Amino acid sequence: MWEKKPRGWMITAAVAVAAIVAGCVGKDRGEKPIDASDISQALEQAVDQTIIPTVQAFKLEVSTLEQSAEAFCNTPSNDALSALQNGWLITFEQWYALSIYNFGPLNDDIVFPAYTFIDSLRLRGTNYLETVRSEIASDIDDSITLDADYFAAKTFQNVGLLAVESASFETSTAEHSQQATDILADFNNQPRKCDVLLSLTGQLMRWADYTEEGWLTQYKNSAESYRSLFLNDQLEDGSAPITQLIVAVQEFLDYLQARNVVNVAAPLAGNSWAAISSTIDAVEELLQGSEHTTISLFDIMIATGNQNAVDTVQGNIAQIRSAIASEDADMLEITLGYLDGNFKREIPDSLDVELGINFSDGD
Question: pTM for this structure?
Answer without folding.
Answer: 0.89
